[in-house]
Design brief:
Length: 153
């Protein structure tokens, strides 16, 4: 584990409301538990505001998988049913249970999930509410002219 401390002072100088992101960064850097590499996954950008998470879940069926979203966290669990013990000469396919969490940014919504050929694909989209989209503010012009009177000489 590294003793690296993240200084986010420059971020705070020019921005407001990024406290949650800073906390997320610090917590991910302080993670004491070794990161699990199972199951392997990809996170892709399909097009602007459209994302895809693909997990390699060979040997799992739809009934073995559970996908939930709560408080901005996408949780994917795989639970293999108990089977009778088999004797292997070599076992290279991991069929163990797993739990994988993904922190979702604000306004990211899970649109669908699909299991095909041992790949679980979760489609996400960022839907920004109209109230938060950029809008132009018109500047009104006020008549503030001062009349100058010339003295008759």
């Amino acid at each position: 584990m590294s003793n690296f401390e993240l200084d986010l002072t420059p971020l705070y100088r020019h921005s407001v409301g990024f406290d949650q992101m800073a906390s997320l960064l610090r917590n991910s850097l302080r993670s004491e538990a070794p990161a699990s590499n199972y199951p392997p996954y990809n996170i892709e950008v399909e097009k602007e505001n459209h994302y895809q998470i693909t997990l390699a879940v060979a040997g799992f069926s739809e009934g073995d998988l559970d996908i939930q979203v709560e408080n901005g966290v996408l949780l994917v669990r795989g639970q293999k049913p108990e089977t009778k013990h088999k004797e292997y000469l070599f076992q290279g396919i991991a069929g163990r249970s797993f739990e994988r969490k993904f922190n979702l940014a604000d306004h990211i919504e899970v649109k669908s999930a699909d299991l095909t050929n041992g790949l679980l694909t979760i489609s996400l989209v960022k839907e920004i509410p109209d109230a938060m989209k950029p809008r132009r503010i018109e500047i009104s012009k006020t008549e503030n002219t001062v009349e100058h009177k010339q003295d008759a000489a």
